[in-house]
Amino acid sequence: MTTSARRIKTKTTIFLLLLSFSCAWAQTSAPNCCPQTPTKEKQQALWKKLQDKIADVDRDLDGVMGVAVRDLGTGETFLLHGDDIFPQASSIKIAVLAELYDQEQRARRGETGVARLADLYTMRSEDLVPDSFIMGGLTPGVTRVTNRDLATMMVAVSDNSATNVLIDHVAMPNVERMLTSLGLKNTHLQRKMMDIAAARQGRENISTPREMMTLLDAIYRNKLFDKELTADFFKVLSTPKDSSIPKLLPGDITIANKPGELEAVRNDSGIIFVPNRPFILCVMTTYLHDERAGQRAISEIALAAYQYFDRLGRSSEYGRAVPAK
Hints:
By secondary structure, this protein is an alpha+beta fold. About 45% of the residues lie in helices and about 15% in strands. The strands form three sheets. Strands 2-1-9-8-7 form a five-stranded antiparallel sheet, with helices on both faces. A two-stranded antiparallel sheet has the order 3-6. A two-stranded antiparallel sheet has the order 4-5. Strand 8 (about 265-270) and strand 9 form a beta hairpin. Helix 2 (about 40-60) packs antiparallel against helix 10 (about 290-315). The chain starts with a helix and ends in a 12-residue tail after the last helix.
């Protein structure tokens, strides 16, 4: 090695040693001069407390509960009995609504023979079944409504006649194919509303907390229809209704959900659009000793989840609540 090369090597070594010493001194003498990337430890502590709260509600409920919570920003998910199958009652109507909008999307792409939102239907008396709060007041053979009108009745007041007409219009096998296309193996629309004979034969409308969460997540991310139709889908699903998720939440929060009720069964699934931190919540209960207790349990979990996501949505990554204005 030449003298010149040795000098260069020596200078380089000295420079690296000085640089190493400088970094070490900065870390020990001035640890806050270059803040490190904030960790999620504090948020994880809050996330764990939410899980503990859900566990407390589950423990106190005289029945069986399943829960799915998903942060739509990060994808972080909590599941309690997430793959257990529960009867859905009217919550299965989310799948019927999704198929209607999927067919509207396909029609806009040129497919024929599918249902459209604007298709007109003339109400018939033979379509009426129990719990037809709006359809029962219409004039048979005269009143005409669109599929979107039927969907609004199905969501807002859970009108079973409107639901059954929509099921006829979109066809039950098509709902099943749509669910299968999303990989949902345990979510099934197997009977119309109030078909007790079918229920006695074991043909129940079913899903799991994970799969109902997956369906809502797919819709939110435009995997079934475009942004325009997705926005309208959630506009219909967020029609105000008597349900457990919103019961304890602020009235100005948009909540796109569908509850379900049967004997010993109370469910509610939807998306709570917390500013900056929307999330999915699916709560299913069955074998209930007290159905009102099931409703309270859903409301308590919804409040705990809302408080967690609202706190994150209003805070900096260090935990300070930053004013919106």
